[in-house]
Specification:
The complex is a heterodimer of chains A (114) and B (340). Chain A is an all-alpha fold. Chain A is built from four helices and no strands. Chain B has 340 residues and is α+β, with helices and mostly antiparallel strands. Chain B folds into three domains: 105 residues; 69 residues; 129 residues, Heat Shock Protein 90. In chain B, the strands form two sheets. A five-stranded mixed beta sheet of chain B has the order 2-4-5-7-6, with helices on one face. A two-stranded antiparallel sheet of chain B has the order 1-3. Chain B is rod-shaped, with a radius of gyration of 41 Å. Classes of the chains: A mainly alpha (114), B alpha+beta (340).
Chain lengths: 114, 340
Amino acid sequence: MLNFLDLLVIVFLAVAAFSLLSVVLMFVVKNPLVQKISLGLTVLVSLGLGVSYLPSFLNFGFDGQFAAGILFILMGIGGGVLALAAKDDPKKFLAARILAAAGLVLGIANAFLI
Amino acid sequence: MTEPKRKKLSSQILATLGISLGAAVAAFDLLVFGAYALLDRVYDAQPISMSEDALISAQGWALNLSLLFSVGFFLTLFLVLLGNRLSYVRTITQGIDRLKAGQGDWVIPLRGNNELTTLAVTINAMNAARNAVREKEKALNEERETLIRTLSHDIRTPLTSVLSYSELLLSRQELDESARGQAALIREKAERIKELTDVLLDGGKRTPEEFPDARLLFLQLAMEFEEVLEGDFSVETDLSGLPPFAGGFDPGELRRVLDNLITNVQKYAHPDHPVTLRVEKTGEGIVITQENAVRRAEAKPESFQMGITSIRRVAHNYGGRAEIRKDEERFVISITLSEF
């Protein structure tokens, strides 16, 4: 029977591993379609993390961690918007990927580790 | 130009393996560290009552799942990196396919610095050399064609005089029958030369005509064959296997074939044995077979190779072929015309 800590660690590892994989694939794979899909998944995970901040906000109000979380989510969303605006500009697309990846990694660290 | 020092593909694949392994170990550490840190924080805060056994169990989950995810991460990363490296093989094969398809000016893009790059450089160099040879060949062909056309044009100038004067001779009433025949022969041969120079001036352009009953054309050609040779040889023609049929033929081409056969008979055939010409329709098309006994000449006459080449070219124009069977006693040539 899984206890609360087991479930927590499983969820954390699933999110972390999935995020790590999508971030790495976003930079390693050369196929632009796979890059776009990875970017989309990264942004989605960022939004998911954003949802996970809501109980904390309801319990503890607007504190520093919540503010940082919102910032990281906005970074992820900004990456997605920049990717849409980049069209065929590889530099803008690279910047979008970096922004989304940074938002996700920092968001995970903020949500689980700080 | 010196070839730059290339890296070994095997070393690069090994490096890819090492990078993937290193990244997987780092991912494992990161996941385990993150999970442990999270567990410690939650356990220390004790939001709900938890025993130490629960913590140990969760740490076990963290270790095992991190290991599982890291293995998956390693495999994914290694396969993606290997795919990136080996995708250049596909670029090279696509380039080769383009070259095979006739895109001679296609250049395989150079990527990386390993043995595959050397392969692409070599293929590009071979293609460039082939293009250079083709260009040279094209220039030589153009030069040859220009020469042929110039010569053909120059031949026509004196030929006009030959034609005009032979015409004039034929119009003279005082000529006896023998001289008239000789003048007619001169005119006929001069006309033939003119037709040939026309073909050369047109760059070998063919002018096939549609014959509702092409059997008549072959009958006429067989009669001409017989007529020219009958003074010196016993000629037997057989068109019994040729039913009436419709088809497109260039009479000039067929006449050239016939002329070459006649010249061959005159040079090589034994006059005491019959010369046969058989034309028949088979499943493969129209087959013209000419056969004769070989004369044992002390002095070897001029080679028949040029004539054979001309016959083969005509047969090729009709999607067919010319086959020769020859020994010391007999000579047989079969000309197949398949598309007409």
